[in-house]
Amino acid sequence: MAGCSPTPSRPAVNDKQDRPSLPDPASDEGIPVSVRIRERLKAAERRFNANDNIAEFIEPGELEAMLDEVTEKMEAVLQSMVIDTQGDHNTASTARRVAKMYINEVFQGRYVTPPSITEFPNAEHLNELMLVGPITVRSACSHHLCPVIGKLWIGIMPNKGTNVIGLSKYARLAEWVMGRPQIQEEAVIQLANLIEQKTRPDGLAVVMEATHFCMAWRGVKDLDSRMINSVMRGVFLKDMSLRREFLALLPRSTN
Ligand SMILES: Nc1nc2c(ncn2[C@@H]2O[C@H](COP(=O)(O)OP(=O)(O)OP(=O)(O)O)[C@@H](O)[C@H]2O)c(=O)[nH]1
Fold first, then answer.
1. Atom 24 of ligand 1, residue of closest alpha carbon
2. What radius of gyration, in Å, describes the C-alpha atoms of the chain?
3. Where is the region Disordered (predicted)?
């Protein structure tokens, strides 16, 4: 899927070899930082959908500038909604808080490089099913930017060429992928691609179960419905009994 492959692990901004040379910073004066970043992405013909990571196109200091730009625009949104941000002490700093929440917290997975993952060789030639979960998922839907909260389980069938990664790293990779506006179907594929690339297993299974607040808080206001989806790769596709074993290990609600 175009643009869903993970961003290579490298410093946010240093590697400029494969992208067009940047204009003199002095000539950037007055140009919003978002425009500068977007121009770089377009010049490199890179997708910048809501669930794409764009860290390698952001120069040092630009995230801070983006924070200021988003604050200003959030303030304009509040004013357009006729909220008295001058007189109402509760909303006086809301624009800044929301900007920080989006850029530094809930959508950070768009702006930072992937977590560093130490990979170990599979010295013991492990070849038994391994399952990690439930890992808590915190994301937001790209349609309404409403929270998506849930859990996911990851099954790995290693082979002797598989890299072994620390248990906590599955949660770190999940946080990086889910920390973007997502739709659940694409989120699990992005995560599966990333884990497959890091570990090169014989088989990989990812199951995600989540509540979408765009269906609970607004819209149809259905509090109880959840979305469950899965990605099966390699031996999990071919071997029915392995798939059954993995699914049987999940808590009953996801079976
Ligand atoms: N397939 C899928 N749909 C999602 C996901 N998250 C939210 N949605 C749905 O995206 C849809 C957006 O549809 P629209 O018709 O444009 O939005 P809307 O008019 O506000 O729709 P309602 O929510 O029905 O009021 C809604 O049906 C959401 O429930 C997701 O991860 N996957």
1. 219
2. 21
3. 1-31
Domains of the chain: 25-110 (1.10.286), 120-254 (3.30.1130.10)
Residue 184 CA to residue 197 CA, distance in Å, equals 20
- For residue 134, is the peptide bond before it cis, meaning its omega torsion is within 30 degrees of 0? yes
**Measured from the CB, is residue 183 less than 6 Å from ligand 1?**
yes
Q: How far apart are CA 82 and CA 74, in angstroms?
A: 13
Q: How far is the CA of 143 from the centre of ligand 1 (A)?
A: 7
Binding site membership of 191 for ligand 1 (Cβ less than 6 Å)? no
Instruction: Write the pLDDT tens digit of every residue in 43-55.
Output: 999 999 999 999 9
List pLDDT tens digits, range 190-238.
Answer: 999 999 999 999 999 999 999 999 999 999 999 999 999 999 999 999 9
* Band (7; pLDDT cuts 50, 70, 90): very low
Residue type at position 27: S
**CB atoms inside a 10 Å sphere around CB 220:** 9
Instruction: Return the H-helix or E-strand segment holding 214.
Output: helix 213-216
Pocket test for ligand 1, best of 137, 142, 143 (most atoms within 8 A of CB): 143
Provide the token pair at 245.
Answer: 């074993």
